[in-house]
Amino acid sequence: MPHIDNNIKLDFKDVLLRPKRSTLKSRSEVDLLRSFTFRNSHQKYSGIPIIAANMDTVGTFEMAKALCKHVAASSGTSPSDLEQLEKILEALPQVRYICLDVANGYSEHFVQFLRDVRKRFPDHTIMAGNVVTGEMVEELILSGADIIKVGIGPGSVCTTRKKTGVGYPQLSAVLECADAAHGLNGHIISDGGCSCPGDVAKAFGAGADFVMLGGMLAGHTESGGELIERGGKKYKLFYGMSSDVAMKKYAGGVAEYRASEGRAVEVPFRGAVGHTLRDLLGGLRSTCTYVGAAKLKELSRRTTFIRVTPQGPPLFGAGD
Ligand code: 5GP
Question: Is 127 in the pocket of ligand 1 (CB under 6 A)?
Answer without folding.
Answer: no
